[in-house]
Amino acid sequence: MDDHRVELGDTGDLGDGQLRYCDIGDHGVVVCRVKGEVFALEDNCSHADTPLSQGSLSGYMLTCPLHGAQFDVRDGSHGGPPAYVGVRTYPVEESETGVVIDMSAPDVDPDDGFGQPGGMFRTR
Amino acid sequence: MTDVRPQPTPPAGISREKAPEPELGDTPITGDRYYSAEFAAREWDHLWTRVWLIAGRADQVPEPGDYITAQIGNESILCVRGTDQRVRAFYNVCQHRGNQLVTAERGSLAGGQFQCAYHGWRYDDTGSLLWVAVEEDFPQGNPCGSRNLVEIPCDSWAGFVWFNMDPTCDSLADYLSPVAEQLDCYRMGNMKRTHWVTAEGDFNWKVVQDNFNESYHLPYVHPQTVASMNEHYTGCQFDLYDTGHCRMLMPGGGPGPLYRGRADRTFKSLAQDFEFWEFDPEPFRDDLQGLRVALQQRKRELGASKGYDFSSYSDEQLTDHYHYTVFPNLSFSMKPDGCIFLRASPHPDDPEKCQFDMWYLTLFPEGVSEYYSNSMRDWVAIDHQVEHEVGKVGDISCGPGIDQDVAIWNTQHKGLRSRGYRNEYLAGQERRIRFFHDNIDRYLAMDPT
């Protein structure tokens, strides 16, 4: 298997709306299931580096427990302040044998137009 | 308290003694306080005309005959240094028929007198009327010596020139107590103003002072700070003094115990500090809370070699944020090597606008004439006469941290206008806002000046 593809094992017991932490990579990976589909994100809030796996999931939005920053698990995009940058997501392949993620995904582009005065406090 | 010359070194360190908590009022902080012309008029009659206000820096008027003018609401105040070295303040209005006497922000008499542009009446640096044209033609008699400029109380503290429009006011020392005694150790009289920005904003002046009277907003408006200061209410100390002034002591030099982020985020946040102080943070990678005291010790060790005299500071003052709000409209945010001075003043005729001032005062290390100010992320020079940048909010910068505050004030004021805003619901750590409005009400209840 190529170096960037990492097996996360069996996620059959990961129910809809649940989060799981996997100790991989620099900051870990948070895995979740929404409407049957599995998503994987870097387990690190872009605001204050808090583990998102300790947060809460509602629909596709994962909320950080510390200051409430929100991220869409489908693409890692943030839901406005206090986050100004999204978090990295990893393509997921789920099969009968388990889930594999591709950790060669590029890092998040920090310039998403929300970091400038005036644009800073727009919310989605 | 007049301090024309630099201050001698006072005893070391600001006491952290906790002030007794005052009893707080419960008058709702309603929106009309921020947009009603009637409320603004009451503030003028009862508040602005009886408090001590700052005209400028004493080093703007170093020699006899030097003068500055300062604006507060619709008033212009003229401050001039006399041949006796005293700085005096006057209403900037000719006593003939009321023309504004001086229109420049700053100047020097150079041995001459103030001369009104309208009819030539001349006044000296004590405000005495010295000469009028055709003095014999006044049916009430020659006005010289009697129709003098109207003088108001004037004094100096911390290198600032202060004035008060109430001739019966308390002394500046009494007014500023206990804040002045605490801040004396910073020797602001020896600091140079290296940034001077005035921005007109579309928000009431109290939106600004409310903001600097709480730190609840820090993780949201200043996200870059969470890695390097303990902004949580359990880590800060708040003191509210019965003169109406407050302080907040917030630990810096590293995050608080509730921070769960990476050490790299903290190291990056404090990188300039670590580099300047030749401090290696690696041993604290798994003990970020240990950084603060270690950094204090390092600054103590190297301070003198870098041209600083830290002998008047406590160890906490070397890393922590000592933030003072002086009633009604000033904030002093103190660093060991400088001060961010923030002030919002009422617009002359629109309560939904204000003039916001950001000054940065730099304490240059001994023997250093150019200095990189970490707080402003800018090089500053000791002998450069800083230019006054004037503009509108959004067009000019008030420094990287303050720009973040400024950006939220527009939406805050708009929300206060809404029928959907009834009154505040404050966290305990926001009680300085409650106290600020209680003190405004205390002044509004006094007889007008």
How would you explain this protein's 3D organization?
Chain A has 124 residues and is mainly beta. Chain A has one domain (5-102): Rieske [2Fe-2S] iron-sulphur domain (Rieske Iron-sulfur Protein, 3-layer Sandwich). Chain A contains no helices and ten strands. In chain A, strands 2-3-4-8 form a four-stranded antiparallel β-sheet, with no helix packed on it. Chain A has a three-stranded antiparallel β-sheet with strand order 1-10-9, with no helix packed on it. A three-stranded antiparallel β-sheet of chain A has the order 5-6-7, with no helix packed on it. In chain A, a hairpin with a 6-residue loop joins strand 2 (19-22) and strand 3. In chain A, 35% of the residues are buried. Chain B is an alpha+beta fold and 449 residues long. Chain B has three domains: 23-50 and 171-251 and 320-449, Naphthalene 1,2-dioxygenase Alpha Subunit, Chain A, domain 1 (Alpha-Beta Complex), CATH 3.90.380.10; 53-163, Rieske Iron-sulfur Protein (3-layer Sandwich); 263-311, no CATH class. Helices cover 21% and strands 23% of the residues of chain B. Chain B is built from eleven helices and 21 strands. At the A-B interface, loops of A face helix 10 of B.
Helix content of chain A: under 10%
Shape of chain A: globular
Query: Ranges of chain A with pLDDT <50 over ≥5 residues?
Result: 112-124
- Number of DSSP helices of chain A? 0
Low-pLDDT regions of chain B:
none
What proportion of the residues of chain B form beta strands (DSSP E)?
A: 15-25%
What kind of sheet is the major sheet of chain A? 4 strands, antiparallel
